[in-house]
Specification:
The chain has 18 helices and nine strands. By secondary structure, the chain is of the alpha/beta class. The longest helix has 29 residues. The radius of gyration is 30 Å and the shape is globular.
């Protein structure tokens, strides 16, 4: 009987495991992935939490709602403001206006009743957008030569990003931005150029991008140096298919974004053929500071004393495990409730635009107490959940990573999660649905360099086409000691050419 009971327990665990996996696959197929909870769900979880605690504990919870002494029980400022006026938004004011006047015919400017001439009393103006399609033109560089009996002199011309190439800086910028910002694969761009009557093969465009990445490599190194000045670096990774002539199938490579802090607003991508420790270890060689990442085991060696890095956990990953376990175990509800309240503190700090010192004080006053309650609740759950169940996995992950997950309580400049790195990977995930794969490992490295500048432009609010067009035309003659001037957050558009 004992053996049968053990076999039944094992079969139930396996059954729950496969049901959970099947549920996740079906959910991923029919809807986008989201961990957002409704107000009704959070209300139920709050009730469940209060039911498990004493009235005095509930009173303390109510005190936490009045964050930083804000009015109306911690209500956000945007909730007290008037609603934005609905209706059509004004058209962009920076665009050139072309005025077209619609007037009455001369015969209609006389009144049929009194016979007098009509006078202009006002104008009714409406606006609409007019789209002007992109166009391609040919620039002829004519270099005049002068000579005498002993000398020949030829006029110079501006240096081009790729010498002896038919592509100007503006065309190169268009190809790069269309591929890595707008996710247009090269075969699609080839057809788009063909509509303009221009034949540019995808192979040619691929070669251009590789040459541009090589040209920008010193600036990429300067960006990496800027990144290493950060107090904290966030990182993650995502997979990309890579073609390999030695294999009958596409293998899996990895793209790693490294996100600088607010004082060093750069995002640097790195490509590695595998997901081994060697990739991030080589990239992060020489860096000392905080590293925010998930609990992937390759990072563990970085947090030993001699490396000089300090681990910062990611509550987004921890919350994901809890959320996945919720459907199978409603005891995860109170845990999600407490996590949501910790995130509410972070939202409040952002809404009030608090400084790092003010945010740390707020966390110490409110978040520390919430985290202590969450830790106590998880320890209680650990005694009751099956180790291999989804609930057991969620509890074990949080408790094993607790020191790293609470690191954000020590410094106001640290973030609660690694969301910035995940958002940096989102564009890669979106793009690979269009361009599908890298043609080689070299193609992966080219992608990492060019995506770094696209992402950093986006973070700094710089238009990427304007940046690439300007920088590609300047970098060949720009002083190597002043390269940081060309980084997106320092860039000023001077001396640009087509």
């Amino acid at each position: 009987m004992v053996d049968l009971a053990e076999q039944l327990d094992r079969s139930l665990v396996e059954q729950n495991k496969y049901q959970s996996l099947l549920r996740e696959l079906l959910e991923a197929q029919r809807s986008r992935k989201s961990e957002q909870l409704t107000k009704e769900q959070l209300g139920l979880f709050e009730s469940a939490w209060q039911a498990q605690n004493s009235p005095s504990q509930s009173d303390e919870d109510d005190d936490d709602d009045d964050i930083d002494g804000s009015p109306q029980g911690g209500q956000r400022p945007d909730q007290t403001q008037q609603k934005k006026r609905s209706g059509r938004q004004a058209l962009a004011r920076h665009l050139v206006r072309e005025r077209i006047v619609h007037d009455l015919a001369e015969a209609e400017k006389h009144c049929d009743c009194c016979g007098r001439d009509l006078r202009l009393i006002e104008e009714e103006t409406s606006e609409r957008y007019e789209y002007i399609p992109a166009s391609v033109k040919v620039i002829e560089d004519v270099r005049r030569k002068y000579a005498c009996e002993c000398t020949i002199r030829t006029a110079g011309k501006p240096a081009q990003p790729i010498e002896k190439s038919t592509a100007s800086a503006s065309l190169l910028a268009q190809v790069i931005v269309a591929k890595w910002a707008d996710h247009q694969p090269l075969h699609r761009q080839e057809k788009m150029f063909a509509r303009h009557g221009v034949t540019i093969s995808r192979k040619t465009m691929g070669g251009w991008m590789a040459q541009c990445a090589k040209l920008l490599d010193p600036l990429y190194a300067a960006m990496k140096k800027e990144l290493f000045g950060s107090k904290v670096i966030g990182t993650d990774d995502t997979s990309v298919k890579v073609l390999d002539r030695k294999l009958p199938f596409a293998r899996i490579g990895r793209i790693w974004p490294y996100v600088g802090d607010a004082h060093h607003p750069v995002i640097v991508y790195d490509y590695t053929p595998t997901r081994s420790r060697a990739g991030p270890a080589k990239f992060l060689e020489g860096y000392k500071g905080y590293l925010q990442a998930d609990a992937y085991s390759v990072y563990d060696a970085f947090f030993k004393g001699e490396r000089g890095m300090i681990e910062v956990g990611c509550w987004m990953h921890a919350r994901r495990y809890v959320y996945k376990a919720l459907e199978a175990d409603q005891r995860m509800g109170p845990a999600l409730h407490l996590i949501a309240r910790v995130y509410a503190v972070e939202d409040r700090a952002k809404a009030l635009a608090l400084s790092a010192e003010q945010r740390l004080a707020l966390r110490q006053r409110v978040s520390v107490r919430l985290m202590e309650r969450l830790h106590k609740y998880l320890l209680e759950l650990k005694q009751d959940v099956l180790p291999k169940s989804s609930s057991g996995t969620a509890v074990r992950y949080a408790l094993n990573q607790w020191e790293a997950l609470t690191r954000f309580l020590e410094d106001g400049e640290l973030e609660i999660d690694n969301g910035a790195s995940e958002r940096a990977n989102r564009d890669i995930a979106l793009g690979r649905g269009n361009w599908t794969f890298f043609g080689s490992d070299n193609g992966g490295r080219t992608a990492a360099v060019l995506r770094s500048f696209i992402a950093s432009c986006k973070r700094s609010g710089v238009e990427p086409f304007a940046w690439f067009r300007n920088v590609l035309s300047r970098i060949a003659s720009h002083p190597i000691t002043q390269l940081t001037e060309l980084l997106p957050h320092n860039w000023k558009p001077v001396g640009s050419t087509t």
